[in-house]
Amino acid sequence: MSVPEQLIASVAEALPLVSARIPDAPAAELGRFRLLDRDHPYQTPVQAAHDALGPLLASRLLGVLELTVAELRVAAPGGLTAGLAPLTSGAFGLMSFGHEPATRKPLALVEAVNPGATALVVDLARALARESEVRRLLAVGAEVVGEEEIIAQHGRAHLALAVVTAGAVLREVGADPVAVVATALGVAALLLHDAGAPPSYAAAALDKRRADYRLPLSASVHAVATGGHFALVEHGVAADPDFAENGLVAPIPGGVAVRTGVEAGQVQVGLDVLAEPPSEVDLAVWDEVVEVSWTAEAGFATLTGGPQDCRTPPWSGPYRVRVHARGRDGDDVEGHHLVVWSAPAAPPIVHKRTDRLGHRLRGEPEPPVVTAPDAAFRWVHQGRLSVAATITSVTGLTPDEVVLAFGADPGVPLSWEECQNGVEWVPAVAVRQCGDVVVAVEVNGFRGSDEAVLRELSRAGRAASMFWNAKAVTCLSFARGGEVLWAEELLDELPTSQAPEVRRALPGLDFDDYRHLEAKGVAAVARFTGGGPTERDLERLLHDDVAFRTP
């Protein structure tokens, strides 16, 4: 498109005046805006770009520019809109969709009444942007430094060009200042999409990210596994990583790849980025733990499919990562934890190697499948008992006697469902005969862990209980013959009991590994009393819907 010299001069004269009226904050927000390439079959490009900016930014800029546009006079040659097709006679209507900026309807009206007018503004603004006098005013000068300042100047200059151009064109068709601003917003978004970021912006943005980055960083996110692995990487994974060396993690260009048990899908990943090497190695809750070195090409590696604000430091150089994995064999919920710190390159270290997948990948004989003693009780982690509950198993008493020992009245049954989910929560216990033992279940209750209650429950035999709550507080208790033999918090170092039946209840239950603590505690309860609840027993309790109010 050929642009008249008079218009070029007038636009170059008006640009600084309009730019001076645009504040830094909305200018920077506009400058950072990136228009997505997509089809909008029911909107013109200007309408689609305007709407993509969002109502808040559009409203802020209208408030800034409406009076400026009303005062603006561009000495443009007449006849800029002479080539537009005349409006076809007929009626039309405008629809509103919830909250929208005051610029949306005026823009739609321009499009309806003057077809092609906004497209003319776009073409003319693009042509003006190529003219040397205007191009010079759009460029960010070398004296402008800092990420915020650079991108604000970039957004401000392109918006000013859109405003001046829209004013020159739309004044000829009688558009008001609001319609001019509305059109200019959409045109500015298109111009910025064409222009991309200014040359100095990438370095300034990197400097800002480096200045803003803080250590330590901790996050728990979902990464996306594809092809049996996820990655912590600066860019895409170019080829299939080779995990044969250690069965878990492989350095790749710009990061590391981690072998998963699942072939594809989301996996839970914890990420810690530290300023110093970790003081100790956490082995208790993991099946495999391996650390390797990798080299950051530029920094800011992210987890594949994870949030972009969860990144390694924005500096190149050598790093160390310790990768932890559990549940890759499918016998537990899969999870991973990555600990990253800056360190010189060093040989890999395998701290722990126990899962079957790792053995297969390393070409080693697989260890035998071992069923954990708590596996039969892991149902406690699901449903209504998962957050807070107490499970008590008793021998030597009838169900009614157990209810009395809890301080409840067996003659006044209540609905268990209503106790838990009514208008007010009611402390209650549900009791059922399960083989040779009586099982008592409290949801969000803890009477079964009270030593006075345990003494009463065990007066004619044995009683044991496992309590847990939402704050990770636990208590495993054993009583016999009216005496509490052992009652301990499972997250503390466990003392040895002198009672042989307590010692027989605990072997094989690894309480140092805090996974499935609740199920391990219930398994110990069942061992001590000779029986405990099954998942089917809990289903029957729920079906019976009978409970008794406790103090």
In brief:
The chain has helices at residues 5-19, 24-32, 45-53, 55-71, 104-113, 117-130, 132-138, 147-170, 177-195, 201-212, 356-361, 399-405, 416-421, 451-457, 500-505, 517-529, 535-544, and strands spanning 217-225, 229-233, 249-252, 255-259, 265-274, 288-296, 302-303, 317-326, 335-342, 349-353, 389-394, 428-434, 437-443, 462-468, 474-480, 483-488, 548-549. The chain is an alpha+beta fold and 551 residues long. Strands 16-15-14-11-13-12-17 form a seven-stranded antiparallel sheet, with helices on both faces. A six-stranded mixed sheet has the order 1-5-9-8-6-10, with no helix packed on it.
- The low-confidence parts are none
N-end to C-end Cα span: 86 Å
Number of helices: 17
Order of strands, main sheet, comes to 16-15-14-11-13-12-17
Q: Helix proportion of residues, in percent?
A: 25-40%
What is the global morphology? elongated
Using DSSP, what is the number of strands?
17
Which class of secondary structure composition applies to the elements?
Answer: alpha+beta
Rg over C-alpha atoms, rounded to the nearest angstrom: 35 Å
**How much of the polypeptide forms β-strand, as a percent range?**
15-25%
- Integer average pLDDT: 92
The profile of the biggest β sheet is: 7 strands, antiparallel
